[in-house]
Amino acid sequence: MRVLIKGGKVITPLDILEEADVLTEDGRIFAVGPGLAQVGADETIDATGRIVAPGYVDIHIHGSAGHDTMDGTREAIEGISRFLVTRGVTSFCPTTLSQPTEDIMRSVRAVYDCIENPIEGGAQPLGVHLEGPCIDIKKKGAQPEQHIRAAADVDYEELFGLGNIKLITLAPEIAGNRDLIAFARSQGATVVVGHSSASYEDLVEATKLGVNHATHTFNQMEGLHHRKPGTVGGVLLLDEIYAEFIADGIHLHPAIVDMIVRLKGPDKAVAITDAISGAGMPDGDYELGGQRVIVKEGAVRLADGTLAGSALTLDAAVRNILKFTRASVAEAIQMATLTPARSIGVSDRKGSLEPGREADLVMLDQGLNVVSTMVMGEVVHRA
User: Fold this and answer.
1) Confidence band (pLDDT; 50, 70, 90) for 289?
2) Active site residue: 274, 285, 315, 365, which one?
3) What pTM was computed for the model?
């Protein structure tokens, strides 16, 4: 089965091709360039006047459309998945939070089921992002305090047993968590500094152990001071570290988004949503891992006012990056596609429009609004 997406502005995102074509075959990119109509296709999609880009990759998302990863069911992961394609996301990492191991494992198993038995008509889960429970209680944010614990008190071999953990966020300055860094790396997981009071020096040492990624930069991490660079200083200055950021204009001032993008560049800055079940839903009360959260005017908070994830979608994040920073369209798209894919080691199949990659695409209008979404060569959403 060959599908031709014809005549669009193709952002690979490393190249920009005007009035070019993308030809897919059996769920993969077969060719990219002008004049591919002569090759022949079973179906042709007219992309004239549209932007054709890789499908967005959200590696830090708790939920959306009324569903939470911590619901621990296939239905929840499917619900998130089918909402995400309406926002141009074609792959994602369902994200947990600090809870008892048995509750986290229910979610890990649900994601495993959705990988082994793929979801029809939705975004593909790439694996789980474990956010906690091995974090610093002083930087807990919306993580439930009673479930935060050191690695020695967690059966992390059980958590990793199914082989589908893609990322784990932890506080590397806690001595008891250091063995977990090495273990997670041995299992192929990306190790992420987050909810952390790590000093700059702590983070330098942590990168030597294998930490190379940061959860929602600036939020719930030791801040920047001119005599104490802190966790933030390390994230911004250490070349090894990919820096997640939430471009909703609430978690970070637009100038701070610009700072992150300028200092890390599109090769290391990773757009995420950190979205919760209320994303894509009306204002009101929702749940985050069993906690009541309130969505109001685009912000998500616990009852005490603590920010508790976001209601952001990744297509909106890309548009905000263009408003907040000096990034080009291709760079903004890269931060939501190729860079997150590279950061978790899946760029050999996700995040770019190159021959041999999986045929995950999003078609956008000139305002970067989603027109249609393709997953593995199948159109799963049309606006």
Assistant:
1) confident
2) 274
3) 0.97
